[in-house]
Design goal:
The complex is a heterodimer. Chain A is mostly beta strands. Chain A has helices at 2-8, 11-14, 64-69, 164-171, and strands spanning 38-45, 51-62, 76-83, 92-99, 102-110, 118-120, 127-131, 142-143, 150-157, 191-200, 209-218. Chain A has one domain (2-218). In chain A, strand 8 (142-143) and strand 9 (150-157) form a beta hairpin. Chain B has a domain at 50-149. In chain B, helix 5 (69-87) packs across helix 6. The radius of gyration of chain B is 29 Å and the shape is globular. The chains are: A mainly beta, B mainly alpha. At the A-B interface, strand 1, strand 2, strand 3, strand 6 and strand 9 of A face strand 1, helix 3, helix 4, helix 5 and strand 2 of B.
Chain lengths: 219, 183
């Protein structure tokens, strides 16, 4: 991440030519490259179509060696926000935080006083506890048999794909022809730390539409 | 009686203490996990790339990451619209039929809308499914390029509406946790 930040420099941000999308991989100076840096967020119907799977990825552009050393920061809370009445204010939260090699996933539960940019962890909510999968081992998953919530936490291949280098070339004027086809995926061969939580739709509104987003918060 | 009671109590206590000292778990709680404290926001994300693309300058980017979605439109929509027109001065509408104000109005509140009724996708060509979620396989880069540069029917600026990378470097899993194993 730091290398990319240097590459970007001031020119890419200042240029009013093109911009590019990089999910949140190259996001903002205050968090770039740190343990609370969100790289991506996904929400989609699960294999069981009664469920929605939420994916929150942090700490991007991990090499294989870097992945072996990477760890979820125990001071960083990953919070999935769910707005069931579509007013852009969260009604439900799912809170995930690491402790001693396990990921504790609380919820979903009503947001209450933890709506907004400050939160406390709701230890009274139903919790799904999963061993964080060590690099190089098979994925460990857990299902809370009462709620049906499934959880995974650990290194995964970064699911994002983008020809970021060509984008930079376009920005600095060295690629007047635009993108090429086929392009080269800058994120190929890199990993992220991923939290995947699958939740029965009945726990997050049941039907219709929801709005959702992810936040990282630290202590 | 009192002496016997006292003696028996003393024996009981010493017996318990003797037992407990050989079994720490009975009197020492296992790792006390501390979940206390207030956590304050560092980063936030709804849809891919919005902050990167539309927020200009470090201050705006940092602010966007700590502004609650319900406050984002008022704070960022106008700037997003200026940015869109700076990026594509010829922008009129896009394949969804949105003018600049509508498009940036939708994007400035940075949330991912998810359908609980069926298909979830960022964009699959069927307008009814647009912005109903985000799957791992969705080519969000091409979608956003198309919506920014492709014009009313998607045919404008063909060298800018795809980055030529249509899929991930590893196949996704059909079952939980869906993401591929790490390199």
């Amino acid at each position: 991440m730091k290398k990319l930040k240097i590459l970007l420099g001031a020119s890419a941000i200042a240029v009013a030519g093109f911009f590019m999308v990089a999910a949140d991989h190259i996001d903002a100076p205050d968090v770039a490259g740190g343990t609370s840096d969100i790289t991506d967020y996904y929400a989609f119907q699960g294999e069981d179509d009664d469920n929605i799977a939420f994916v929150a990825n942090v700490q991007g552009l991990l090499s294989p060696t870097g992945s072996a050393a990477a760890a979820f920061d125990e001071n960083v809370l990953v919070e999935i926000n769910i707005d069931t009445d579509l007013d852009a204010v969260e009604d439900l939260l799912i809170q995930a935080i690491a402790r001693d090699g396990k990921m504790y996933v609380f919820g979903p539960f009503p947001a209450g006083a933890s709506a907004g940019t400050s939160s406390t962890i709701n230890t009274t909510a139903p919790v799904t506890v999963v061993d964080i999968t060590a690099y190089g081992t098979s994925a460990v998953t857990t299902t809370n048999s009462s709620t049906g919530v499934m959880a995974f936490a650990g290194p995964r291949d970064d699911p994002f794909f983008f020809d970021f280098d060509q984008y930079l070339a376009i920005l600095d004027g060295s690629a007047p022809g635009g993108f090429v086809n086929p392009g080269t995926d800058k994120f190929a061969g890199t990993n992220v730390l991923s939290i995947v939580v699958e939740v029965p739709k009945s726990l997050i509104g049941g039907s219709g539409k929801i709005n959702s987003w992810v936040e990282t918060k630290s202590k | 009686m009192k002496n016997i009671k006292t003696l028996m109590l003393a024996l009981l206590i010493s017996g318990a203490a003797f037992n407990c000292s050989n079994d720490d778990d009975a009197i020492q709680p296992r790792n006390i996990l501390d979940f206390s404290g207030t956590y304050t926001q560092d980063d936030q994300m709804g849809r891919p790339a919005i902050n990167t693309v539309f927020s200009v300058g470090d201050a705006t980017k940092n602010s966007f990451n700590v502004t609650p979605p319900s406050s984002q439109n008022a704070a960022f929509q106008a700037g997003f619209e200026s940015r869109l027109l700076a990026l594509n001065s010829g922008y009129t509408t896009n394949a969804l039929g949105w003018d600049a104000a509508t498009f940036t109005g939708a994007l400035a509140t940075d949330v991912l809308t998810v359908s609980l009724d069926g298909t979830t996708t960022f964009f699959d060509g069927n307008p009814a499914n647009t912005l109903s979620g985000r799957t791992l396989a969705n080519d969000v880069i091409d979608v956003e390029l198309l919506l920014i540069f492709g014009g009313p029917d998607g045919s404008a600026n063909p060298t800018l509406t795809t980055d030529g990378v249509p899929s991930n470097d590893k196949p996704f899993l059909t079952s939980f946790p869906y993401l591929a194993s790490p390199w």
